[in-house]
Design goal:
Elements lengths: L1 E7 L21 H16 L6 E5 L2 H13 L7 E4 L1 H4 L3 H9 L7 E6 L3 H10 L11 E6 L13 E6 L6
């Protein structure tokens, strides 16, 4: 069994017309930190502990990742930052990337951006529609022994949570 947890980064500051920050540099709002804590605490309550945490290199995703890593007690050597999660990817590219981890990590969590996070969840689970608000998190399981065996449209949605479910 392999489980992929997909999380959209938490709530961020908006890019203004006069902003001196790039999209890549946008940071979390205080609400983003609070929402990340809510979701990570719920995962802890559910007994979910990812074996590997992979995050986009963008500031907002990295900040979201740090909250999850701390609350889920994920050690630094089980955290990877990847630029392609910011740049964009197809489901096929994601599956090729995951295949490198083979049997080593049964549960992998990815923190990234829309539209890729939502599209990955839809195509991996064969779902018709999934709305992914900021910090929205979904777990998709695959009845396989290695990441190399994971195929699109064969995953089963185990659960989906978002901050609004706790407010």
């Amino acid at each position: 069994m392999r489980t992929l947890i997909l999380t959209r980064h938490a709530k961020t500051e908006q890019l203004g017309y006069n902003s001196d920050k790039s999209d890549f540099e946008r940071e979390l709002k205080p609400r983003g930190y609070d929402d990340s804590k809510l979701i990570a605490q719920d995962m802890t309550t559910r007994g979910i502990h990812p074996d590997l945490l992979i995050s986009s290199t963008a500031a907002r995703a990295t900040q979201t990742m740090r909250v999850f890593a701390e609350l889920l007690n994920i050690e630094k050597h089980h955290i990877v930052r990847e630029q392609f999660l910011y740049d964009g990817y197809t489901t096929s590219e994601l599956l090729l990337y995951l295949a490198q981890y083979n049997e080593k990590y049964p549960c992998i969590m990815i923190i990234g951006h829309n539209p890729e996070i939502a599209m990955s969840a839809i195509t991996l689970s064969n779902s018709d529609y999934l709305h992914f608000p900021t910090t929205g998190t979904i777990a998709i399981s695959f009845d396989v022994e290695s990441w190399e065996q994971v195929n699109a449209r064969e995953g089963k949605i185990d659960w989906f949570i978002s901050p609004k479910m706790f407010k």
